[in-house]
Amino acid sequence: MQRSFARELGSLEALFAFLDEASERYRLDEDSRFAARLAAEEIFTNMVKYGGGEARVVITIEVRDQRLVMAFVHPGAVQFDVTDAGDVDVSESIRERTPGGIGLFLVRRMMDDISYEHADGVARVTLTRHLGGS
Amino acid sequence: MFEIRRGANGEVLLTGRLDAAQVDRVRDELKNQNTSCEVNFEHLDYISSAGMGVLLGIQKRLSASGQGLILTHMNRHIRELFTIAGFNHVFTIK
After folding, report:
1. Distance CA A16, CA A40 (A)
2. DSSP character for A55?
3. What span, in angstroms and rounded, lies between the C-alpha atoms of A77 and A127?
């Protein structure tokens, strides 16, 4: 299943509707549905904040070989490798904690694989989750 | 869909999905909160890092004066996110 979204936070409602549709079609379990919502929002909002350009983000969701695969393609994107994000120190005290980096940290924990490519001005992020367990 | 409102005892009641497009509503509701306060997650289905981040900011401000948010009735998925992020050490979670 594939759909495109304007690169703005106002697209989140439509993005979640798309995820609900895909979750029904592929009969995803509750854990995978939650993980897919979280990961999709984090990657999409990352593209909204840091992506650049006017092009829409094209998202493809499919299930193959017992794996949920979500691909985010953003033409006109500046380079921002989401796999380069550092780890978050979860043991820091409240004074030291900042919200930065938590989103991608959670994506890495909820998904089994994340890949990033940037070629000819097009960024592509692919998330994979094995179904039947995280 | 997301709703934020106050219960009879000043408790903050969250409903629906707290995503990046909704965080300003939480920030506005709690901007003048200067004392400890319960935030009831019973009807909150989903939260992302944006929602967690705005709660963290409020918690940091309150904790400077010895106050804090008490988060209650989280569903299993949201509780897992807070634990993964280490927020179970930052908030009182009931």
Report:
1. 9
2. P
3. 18
CA distance A23 to A7: 22
3-class SS of residue B91: coil
Best residue in A94, A106, A109 for a mutation probing chain B (most B CBs within 10 Å): A94
Task: Label residue A99 by pLDDT band (50, 70, 90).
Answer: confident
In order of A44, B18, B34, B45, the CA distances from A48 in angstroms are 6, 17, 33, 23
Structure tokens given for B92 = 């009182």
Q: What Cα–Cα distance (Å) separates residue B7 from each residue in A117, B1, B56?
A: 48, 19, 22
Q: Which of A10, A30, A42 lies nearest to residue B48, judging by beta carbons?
A: A42
Enter the pTM of the model.
0.93
A101 within 8 A of A86, measured Cβ to Cβ = yes
* Neighboring chain A residues of B52 at a CB cutoff of 8 Å: 99, 102
Residues 21-60 of B with CB under 8 A from A: 21, 46, 48-50, 52-54, 56-57, 59-60
Tell me, what DSSP letter sits at residue B89? G
* Averaged pLDDT score across all residues of chain A: 91
pLDDT of residue A101: 85
